Amino acid sequence: MILLTFGTRPEWIKIKPLVKVFKKNRYPYRVLFTGQHSTLIPSDAEKNIHVSVSISDGANRLDSIVKSLMDKQKIWDRNDISKVLVQGDTTSAFALALAAFHRRIPVIHLEAGLRTYDLDNPYPEEFNRQAISRLARIHLCPTNLSSQNLFNEGIKDGVHVTGNTVLDNLKDIVPTHSNIVPITMHRRENHHIMDLWFKQFEQLADKYTDLEFVFPMHPNPKVQKHKNLLNKVKVIDPLDYDSFIKLLAKSRLIISDSGGIQEESSFFKKRSIVCRKTTERIEGLGVFFELCRHPEDLPDLFEQAISKKPIESDVLCPFGDGNSSNKIYNILVKLGDKKPHEN
Fold first, then answer.
1. Which CATH architecture has domain 180-306?
2. Residues forming the active site
């Protein structure tokens, strides 16, 4: 039985297609929720959770996550867990992968091999995913480049290129075009300059009055405290995933510091500006998105992006074709299943 784990909304979005395929094919699994985004978790996630744990608050949030998950016997009470799947690069994914490793339970890493090789960008995610790669047995890579990253690090066994499961949620949506420019901003490495980003967003909204800048604002207090800087930008409450994807699908251009949005916008053939110093998804650079490393660079990059013609429909998305969960299911069936300590 595979234990599928998630703690944030983005993680749920990326394991949701697997839950559907496993359920359809009666493949044995359980879902563990580690509790970080309890107020943002959609109802379809709540209905599929088998076991939940909570994160205790402490002086350092990252410490609290690791401490809360590393010695939680409730997670491991059942003795039929044969594999543990963690998604991406959160601190909870790292902690659970390490806890499984301590119990000699094989770890499956979904979205493996993404790299910037800069431990500060993104922080702490770059460390988390590199550390998970060292102990995982099965590496489900979204692209050939992420697979090559692992090969260059000496990881050659158990590596599979599957595409990204997030795109499985999008394959039945037909994108359109409007004057809407969605904005998202939440990453830890932007917290200290959040006010500078917000001022640039407001200046864009003041200049491009024919566009509607819509900002579903993350509930993090370090983001919310700058809300008063935005007047021309339309600030709204966080959207549920389906509503946000509809907004993305009809957008003109996207401004974001999100990793997943780079994939989703590329699938919809939308251009985006990525407000980060670096990206682990370099396959889309120059075609689907551009990096904006500093807030003061945003006006010129936005003007260049908004003046370009729409991306042609025959340009392939480099992050997958919307069928990743079926590919992963077939890989796991071929590999078979073993109980802990049988390896």
1. 3-Layer(aba) Sandwich (3.40)
2. 186
Ordered per-residue pLDDT tens for the chain, 343 residues: 999 999 998 999 999 999 999 999 999 999 999 988 776 677 888 899 999 998 888 899 999 999 999 988 889 988 899 999 999 999 999 999 999 999 999 999 999 999 999 999 999 999 999 999 999 999 999 999 999 999 999 999 999 999 999 999 999 999 999 999 999 999 999 999 999 999 999 999 999 999 999 999 998 999 999 999 999 999 999 999 999 999 999 999 999 999 899 999 999 999 999 999 999 999 999 999 999 999 999 999 999 999 999 999 899 999 999 999 999 999 999 998 654 444 4
Structure tokens at 46: 């709540």
The answer as to CATH 3.40.50.2000 being correct for domain 2-168+321-335 is yes
Q: Which segments of the chain belong to CATH 3.40.50.2000?
A: 2-168+321-335, 180-306
Provide the 8-state DSSP code for 125.
H
DSSP secondary structure string, 200-254? HHHHHHHH-TTSEEEEE----HHHHTTGGG-SSSEEEPPPPHHHHHHHHHT-S-E
